[in-house]
């Protein structure tokens, strides 16, 4: 028997190129967040998209169609549950690629109708945001929840978004900055392409950057240093498209420079801008915790630099485990769980639809 306030959520995520499902059990009335993941399945399409050097939406959608049923049924099996044991069905409804979102959303609506379960349409960015709150092991999770002290400065850096969010508490957040052009992850992917590295470029660039010897360019002069766009602007917006152009120009002007050195200089520039702006926001908003999430949060240099800066200011730093930085359904289950705790009322399936440009407020 489970207590009345214990709820089981089945979450589905198909916003880009990962088909994912997860089951979470959590108490929505407990004083402190109290939850556990009963399963998590992620079917990645990376190998398919590597061939085309990026995600082709229609190809992604067709693969979601192929994968969704086995992924969801495996998640239920791993949780040792049947659909009838689930309380709510959470699904990523946006933002994302519309043709990908539709597959997950319509599948989830079908389950909702068939099993007569209410739904929790969930924002993908909110999922990334909350992913920093849920660690893997129980001990780790408890530690993390304890170190969540408001206000939080949340940095969400993914393939589609770069955002700084101030969270006054679980319910109140405000986006204080975002990208005016390319997202951080997109910049990693595009620069990787310029360097002839496969998709997705982020992990490739960081691996290569570790091999940098930082020799000066062959024609002499200083070590490579790329511009830090908008670093001293008063606002908290970012721009990475000019940085990508600088890298492109540098490669054509210095074709003999080691790729690893270019990768390192690029990574340094991105990390420098992200960290400097985040720490300025921490000061201005008197934040007690910094959370880092989204695919680019898997970048070691960014994680360690932000962690060091937080330590210097004696504030908390939380970041998801590496495998929970990129898209998964645990983060969607977690966001749905926190929303339930904060009074969200689940809805009928006819109220749910894919919204590719759903912004968090
Ligand atoms: O969050 P995510 O899985 O998907 C979106 O919601 O966009 O993020 C994917 C992005 C890709 O651009 C990928 O290159 C980047 O995250 N990424 C990284 C690293 N691992 C993944 N960027 C930098 N360093 C990494 N280690
Ligand atoms: Zn994502």
Q: Mean pLDDT, nearest integer?
A: 93
Work out the helicity level.
40-55%
Give the overall shape.
Answer: globular
Largest sheet: 5 strands, mixed
Total number of beta strands: 10
Low-confidence stretches: none
| Number of helices, where a helix is a run of at least 4 consecutive DSSP H or I residues | 11
The main sheet orders its strands as 3-2-1-4-5
Order of helices and strands: EEEHHEHEHHEEEHHHHEHEH
Structural class: alpha/beta
Bound molecules: 5'-O-[(R)-(carboxyoxy)(hydroxy)phosphoryl]adenosine, zinc ion
N-C termini distance: 38 Å
What would you report as the Rg, rounded to the nearest angstrom? Answer: 21 Å
Descriptive overview:
The chain has 361 residues and is of the alpha/beta class. It is 41% helix and 19% strand. The protein contains 11 helices and 10 strands. The protein has helices spanning 46-52, 57-78, 98-115, 124-131, 138-146, 184-194, 201-209, 241-253, 259-285, 300-312, 330-341; strands spanning 6-13, 18-27, 34-44, 88-94, 118-123, 152-157, 162-167, 173-178, 289-293, 316-318. The protein has a 5-stranded mixed beta sheet, with helices on both faces. A 5-stranded mixed beta sheet has the order 8-7-6-9-10, with helices on both faces. Helix 3 links the parallel strand 4 (88-94) and strand 5 (118-123). The longest helix has 27 residues, at 259-285. The structure holds 5'-O-[(R)-(carboxyoxy)(hydroxy)phosphoryl]adenosine and zinc ion (ZN). Residues 124, 128, 158, 295, 327 line the site of zinc ion.
């Amino acid at each position: 028997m489970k207590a009345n306030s214990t709820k089981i959520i089945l979450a589905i995520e198909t916003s880009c190129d990962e088909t994912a499902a997860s089951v979470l059990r959590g108490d929505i009335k407990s004083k402190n967040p109290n939850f556990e993941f009963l399963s998590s399945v992620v079917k990645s399409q990376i190998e398919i998209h590597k061939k085309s050097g990026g995600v082709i939406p229609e190809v992604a959608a067709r693969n979601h169609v192929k994968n969704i049923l086995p992924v969801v049924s495996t998640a239920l099996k791993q949780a040792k549950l049947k659909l009838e044991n689930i309380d709510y069905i959470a699904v990523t409804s946006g933002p994302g690629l519309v043709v990908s979102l539709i597959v997950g959303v319509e599948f989830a609506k079908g389950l909702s109708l068939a099993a007569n379960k209410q739904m929790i349409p969930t924002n993908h960015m909110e999922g990334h945001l909350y992913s920093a709150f849920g660690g893997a092991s129980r001990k780790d999770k408890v530690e993390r929840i304890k170190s969540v002290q408001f206000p939080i400065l949340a940095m969400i850096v993914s393939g589609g978004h770069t955002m700084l969010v101030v969270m006054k508490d679980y319910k109140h957040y405000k986006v204080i900055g975002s990208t005016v052009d390319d997202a951080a992850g997109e910049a990693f992917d595009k620069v990787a392409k310029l360097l002839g590295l496969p998709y997705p470029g982020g992990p490739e660039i960081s691996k290569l950057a570790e091999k940098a010897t930082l020799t000066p360019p062959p024609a002499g002069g200083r070590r490579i240093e790329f511009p830090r766009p908008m670093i001293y602007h008063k606002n908290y917006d970012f721009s990475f498209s000019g940085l990508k152009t600088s890298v492109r120009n540098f490669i054509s002007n210095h074709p003999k420079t080691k790729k690893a050195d270019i990768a390192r200089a690029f990574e340094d520039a991105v990390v420098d801008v992200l960290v400097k702006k985040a720490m300025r926001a921490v000061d201005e908003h008197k934040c007690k915790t910094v959370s880092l999430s989204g695919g680019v949060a898997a970048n070691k240099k960014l994680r360690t630099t932000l962690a060091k800066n937080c330590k210097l200011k004696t504030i908390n730093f939380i970041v998801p485990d590496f495998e929970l930085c990129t898209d998964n359904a645990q983060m969607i289950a977690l966001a749905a769980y926190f929303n339930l705790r904060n009074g969200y009322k689940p809805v009928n399936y006819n109220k749910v639809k894919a919204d590719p440009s759903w912004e968090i407020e």
